[in-house]
DNA sequence: TGCCAGGCCCTCTTTAGGGCCTT
């Protein structure tokens, strides 16, 4: 069987998986606390106890706290898995859908490098690459599609409010991916636009986690 | 108490600087 050309690959309508991470902060040493993904009515929502301290700003916006090796979300104890269990579950979710396109907001700069680091730590990057057809970042996509609307902000929360008229619980990964799916449906990018914004983790540098002296 | 990062994009630009966006 001949491998597909880029043109053949790009013309395909792949299933869409929307994903989001909540983390301990914004720096390169931050760790994943929550991973959520959605495809239509199917969803995945898993939590991890981070090894490093949750930065104050991250705790404030996400509502996560670690107390006595337990993770709390807005004061409620949540069930957690190991990083490996979460990443393997995510891979299984992607594989079940048959090489979907992975979509996230500002994912090129934030979520995907973090995901790449987790995959490298578990030696699963190659398996991930074979499980998706590519990644798309809805931040530059929205900027291109909504160029004429003169929006003040392209933050996901703002786009959802301005375009869908919905105020939602931002900074909960599952809520974020559900609203991103709806937002993407509203934007209705053409296949051409999607291809222009498509990228892979191939060239994405995986920055090693720096042991935190703060924890 | 306040700050802590980094990639992308735009412009008052391109050899830079600053704002946006993610937690």
UniProtKB/TrEMBL annotation:
Domain Exonuclease: 15-193
E.C. number(s) listed in UniProt: 3.1.11.2
CDD domains: DEDDh (cd06127)
Co-factor(s): Mg(2+)
Gene3D superfamilies in the record: Ribonuclease H-like superfamily/Ribonuclease H
Classification via InterPro entries: Ribonucl_H, RNaseH-like_sf, RNaseH_sf, TREX1/2
Reaction equation(s) it catalyzes: Exonucleolytic cleavage in the 3'- to 5'-direction to yield nucleoside 5'-phosphates
Alphabetized UniProt keyword annotations: Exonuclease, Hydrolase, Magnesium, Metal-binding, Nuclease
Top-level EC class as recorded in UniProt: hydrolase
Entry-linked SMART domains: EXOIII
Record family assignment: Belongs to the exonuclease superfamily. TREX family.
Name of the molecule in the record: exodeoxyribonuclease III
Organism encoding this protein: Xenotaenia resolanae
């Amino acid at each position: 069987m001949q491998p597909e050309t880029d043109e053949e690959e790009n013309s395909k309508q792949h299933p869409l998986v929307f994903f989001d991470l909540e983390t301990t902060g914004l720096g390169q040493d931050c760790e994943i606390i929550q991973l959520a993904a959605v495809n239509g009515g199917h969803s995945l929502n898993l939590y991890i106890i981070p090894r490093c301290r949750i930065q104050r700003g991250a705790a404030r916006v996400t509502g996560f706290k670690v107390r006595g090796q337990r993770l709390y979300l807005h004061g409620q104890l949540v069930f957690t898995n190991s990083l490996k269990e979460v990443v393997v579950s995510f891979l299984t979710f992607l594989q079940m859908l048959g090489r979907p396109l992975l979509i996230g907001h500002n994912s090129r700069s934030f979520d995907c490098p973090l995901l790449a680091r987790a995959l490298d730590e578990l030696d699963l990057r190659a398996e991930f690459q074979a499980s998706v057809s590519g990644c798309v970042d809805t931040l530059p996509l929205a900027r291109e599609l909504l160029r004429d609307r003169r929006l003040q902000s392209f933050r996901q929360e703002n786009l959802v409010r301005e375009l869908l008229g919905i105020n939602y619980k931002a900074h909960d990964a599952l809520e974020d991916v559900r609203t991103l799916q709806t937002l993407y449906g509203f934007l209705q990018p053409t296949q051409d636009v999607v291809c222009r914004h498509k990228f892979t983790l191939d060239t994405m540098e995986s920055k090693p986690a720096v042991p935190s002296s703060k924890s």
